[in-house]
Structures are given as structure tokens and as C-alpha cells.
Amino acid sequence: MIQATFNKENGRFVDYEITGHAYFADLGNDIVCAATSSLFVTITNQLLLKADVNVEAEKAYKVVLNSQGIIEDILVNTLLTGLRDIESAHPENIKVKVIG
């Protein structure tokens, strides 16, 4: 199962992390993993262009927001909304949570 965790402090996102695999289908045919990866990569690339962020990719894919502003909020909320849409269609393959 994919686990997507978004952390907030004082009403602003400070980081998000995605771990695991959906196991919806065989590797290379997994639409849940593909959709999740596409959203993650697209939004994270935009944050890398527009904001001060660090990307960690050791055991998981974690993005730390060193700045919190309207651009960061819009982009991270877009990712969160997209992942929640995937979760509503495939609750056995992805779990999304917000802490804080």
C-alpha cells in the first residue's frame, strides 16, 4: 500500500512523504502507482522551480518545505487533492493522511 503523509504546522504544510507500492497490478501496469508518481513528480518539480524545498529519497520520497507561502500551499493542496481522489477510487491501495 502507498502511504502519503502531509505534515502541517501553524496551518501551513512543512513536508510531505510518499512510501510503499500500491500492488494494484503487476509492476509496469500499476495505474495507481503511475497516477501517484505522476502527481508527486509534477508537483514536486514545480515546487523545486518556485519555492525553497529539499527532496530526500533514501527510504522514502520526502519533500521538506523550507518556505511556506501561497505558492507552496496551492501546489501541495493540489497534490493532496489528487491523491485523495486516487484514494477514494482505490482505498485498498493508497492511504492519505494529514497531520497537524
From TrEMBL:
Keywords: Hydrolase, Protease, Ribosome biogenesis, Thiol protease
One family name in Pfam for this protein: Peptidase_Prp
One GO BP annotation of this record: ribosome biogenesis
Domain of life according to the entry: Bacteria
MF terms (GO), sorted A to Z: cysteine-type peptidase activity
Family in the record: Belongs to the Prp family.
Protein name: Ribosomal processing cysteine protease Prp
Organism: Enterococcus pallens ATCC BAA-351
